[in-house]
Amino acid sequence: MPSEIYALILAGGSGERFWPLSRKSRPKQLLSLFADQSLLEATIARLKGFVAPEHIFILTNHEQEAAVRALAQQVPAQNIVAEPAKRDTAPAIALGAGLISARDATATMIVLPADQLIRDEAGFQRTLRTACEAAQQTGELVTIGIQPTWACPGFGYIELGKKIEIAGSDGAREVREVVSFREKPNAELAESFLKQGHFRWNAGMFVWTVSSILSAFEQHAPALGEFVTQIHQSKNWAEIVEAKFAELPKISIDYAVMEKASRVLMVEAAFDWDDIGGWAAIAKYLATDAGGNTANTGLTAIDASGNIVFSDQKTHIALMGVKDLIVVQTGDALLVCRRADAEKIKNLVAKVPGELQ
Q1: Contact in structure between 240 and 231 (CB atoms under 8 Å)
Q2: What is the 3-state secondary structure (H, E, C) of the chain?
Q3: pTM (two decimals)
Q4: pLDDT tens track of the chain, all 357 residues?
């Protein structure tokens, strides 16, 4: 490929949706929900052979920094950076772009969330290769789109335009122009998007050259463009980050740049993908009994159905006469709620004792 490839992994998060297993210091990406590996470790592992460990940067926050460093020991310590303030994805990506451009001003940059479940590593790397080639050949910003499997109102959507071809390393590859980014729709509009067929889920995965994202910041978010340049030119980037980061606008990359850019390209994901938004989403990955109860631990159920049971202690759980509950046990807390109320767990977290948050 004509330029070196770097990856920026965004590993912050509030740790609310998977409470009580998750905490402020241990959000979803640091949990081992499906295997011995955490989602962060799996994200790093998926890049093996495609992005060198020394080209991987991880952004986190001070509360989670120690845990991230413990899990990501194959990444150089200086490439793991704790943001001094919570400032959404655009400032985080600007920080990453500055760090990468200081290392290699001609680099191609991949941006990945740390909290998504992807199992097809070969398909994932094929998709990234196409996206990198598209970014390098066209100089455009590139996003990864996910083929919707249902009319989800909880995701942003990408509206697709005309097809274009790029020269892939093993033949021509088709990418699509983006007509628009659509915010989270209501259920009726999401159903319309699904039926129309030319919409994809926005998974928050992006690819571009560092020069292209810098130009986009300079045009559409000048404060972020100036921040990137300051980091690139500074002999002590940590001082710049400490002094300037908290002053940056709190804005997502979609609002700051992607929705304003004159031309954005999309590469469709050739891999499985799950956002794993909360406890209700993990049911399909757990063992299921005849009553439709799912569990990661031993379960005895009588007249019980549709329940989700998770124990990090692997305690045997018994259920009788209940249905459609979420039951989660940790060493210091127990959650029992209706599946229908899963989205409200974050409201509950704010009311539990501080040491359990």
Answers
A1: yes
A2: CCCCEEEEEECCCCCCCCCCCCECCECHHHCCCCCCCCHHHHHHHCCCCCCCHHHEEEEEECCCHHHHHHHCCCCCHHHEEEECCCCCHHHHHHHHHHHHHHHCCCCEEEEEECCCECCCHHHHHHHHHHHHHHHHHHCCEEEEEECCCCCCCCCCEEEEEEEEEEEECCEEEEEEEEEEEECCCCHHHHHHHHHHCCEEEEEEEEEEEHHHHHHHHHHHCHHHHHHHHHHHHCCCHHHHHHHHHHHCCCCCHHHHHHCCCCCEEEEECCCCCECCCCHHHHHHHCEECCCCCEECCCEEEECCECCEEEECCCCCEEEECCECEEEEECCCCEEEEEHHHHHHHHHHHCCCCHHHC
A3: 0.93
A4: 468 999 999 998 777 889 999 998 899 999 988 878 999 999 999 999 999 999 999 999 999 999 999 999 999 999 999 999 999 999 999 999 999 999 999 999 999 999 999 999 999 999 999 999 999 999 999 999 999 999 999 899 999 999 999 987 777 888 999 999 998 999 999 999 999 999 999 999 999 999 999 999 999 999 999 999 999 999 899 999 999 999 999 999 999 999 999 999 999 999 999 998 899 999 989 999 999 999 999 999 999 999 999 999 999 999 999 999 999 999 999 999 999 999 899 999 999 999 999
Domains of the chain: residue spans and CATH = 5-268 (3.90.550.10), 279-356 (no CATH)
The CA distance from 335 to 105, in Å, is 49
